[in-house]
Amino acid sequence: MRGTALAAAAMAGALVLAGCAKDSGAGNNNNASTGDQSASCVTAPKPPAAAAASTSSSQAGEKVDGSKLKVALAFDVGGRGDASFNDSAAAGTDKAKAELGVTSVTESTAAATEDEAAKSQRLDQLASQGFSPVIAVGFAYAKAVGAIAPKYPNTQFAIVDDDSVKAPNVTPLVFAEEQGSFLAGVAAAYKSKKCHVGFVGGVNTPLIQKFEAGFLQGVKAASSKAKIEDEYLTPAGDFSGFQDPAKGNVKAAAQIAKGADVIYHAAGASGKGVFEAAKSNNAMAIGVDSDQYNQKTVEASKDVIITSMLKRVDVAVFDYLRALAKGDLTTLPKRFDLKVDGIGYATSGGKVDDIKDVLDGYKAQIVSGAITVSDKPQK
User: Fold this and answer.
1) What is 98-133 written as a DSSP string?
2) Among residues 173, 190, 224, which one ends one of the domains?
3) How far apart are CA 54 and CA 60, in angstroms?
């Protein structure tokens, strides 16, 4: 009887341990890819399972004819091919060509050192040539849009990442970057083997601080003991931080040397250098804006990209063009967030498949309002 009792006690203990492992926030799904050391970084309980995902507005609705639109894209620094922000905007017009029948699209790109006069001249020239809408890609165009749009009241303008221009012919396309960056922070905490992660921002502006804020909050939500490196490439006003891969490489390499093994960047084309540093130093990286795992310009480093925070500029641009073609801009959301799939995360490469339920659980809590993500960094 004593032997039977001991055996029963041992079995009960094993069942308790198994139950604890199943219920832990750093459960077996994390151990499968990152090992016990990374699992120990996660201190928060696993979030409740998410309901079915929502569908973005760009995927629904009747057939719309956009063949009469004459679209102009005024790119920010880096232009098409930046593997990030501008490429995402370009993808929106590419989709409009394929699905809405848009045939006329022109593109123009800002230089890293150009002044306000150059931006205004670009928009003025595009509007004077009869393009409508003129889509300004980036908050750096705010003053130029504010100056030029009133001169062309019959021309439609849109501006990405700014809602300061109040004019009847100007549509703001703004995002909840902090929400997607929160999920990037959670992913970093779950995937870090050293419980040490990093953020590299391009230019220290209120916009990029939203990425920083969400990332910091997401890391801390998943782990109370993760260490975070947090730096920018250039101060506000110096937009070269979005187009300096060499500087991105140096900054990321320095963070890795301090112990960080997962680096999230919000640095535009400079992110290529961040990926290269991660690849050279046996670390991992998280991309931004587009699904950077599939971007040709960073293909050499794709194996270290575990996910990307998707800022769906493509969705916003396409939805804007679709609404404009229909003649009803009131259908656009005030802000493209997780709820309308204007923000998200990438799964290409399968490197976050084992924590997808965790990420979707946190996403559901943000969408429901159970978690409020700050757009101001809390350090």
Assistant:
1) HHH---EEEEEE--TT--HHHHHHHHHHHHHTT-BS
2) 173
3) 11
Comparing CA positions, the residue from 273, 253, 212, 236 lying closest to residue 82 is 273
Give residues with Cβ within 8 angstroms of 66, minimum separation 6.
96, 100, 101, 102, 321, 322, 324, 325
How many separate domains does the chain show? 2
pTM of the model: 0.81
* Residue the block writes with tokens 């201190």: 43
Distances 205 to 211, 313, 316, 377 between C-alpha atoms, Å: 10, 19, 22, 12
- Does residue 32 lie within any of the structural domains? no
Is residue 234 a contact partner of residue 241, using CB atoms and an 8 Å limit? yes
Of the candidates 173, 199, 230, which is a domain's last residue? 173
Q: Measure Cα distances from 339 to 152, 234, 315, 333 in Å.
A: 34, 32, 13, 10
**Do 106 and 71 contact (CB within 8 A), yes or no?**
yes
pLDDT tens for each residue of 329-348: 999 999 999 999 999 999 99
Give which of 276, 210, 204, 283 is closest to 247, Cα–Cα. 276
3-state secondary structure at position 232: strand
Output the CA angle 192-197-198, nearest 5 degrees: 150
Say which amino acid occupies 255.
Q
Q: Which domain range does residue 289 map to?
A: 176-312+343-368
Radius of gyration of the chain (CA): 23
Question: Is the model's pLDDT at 36 over the cut of 70?
Answer: no
* Average pLDDT in the chain: 88
Which CATH number covers residue 98? 3.40.50.2300
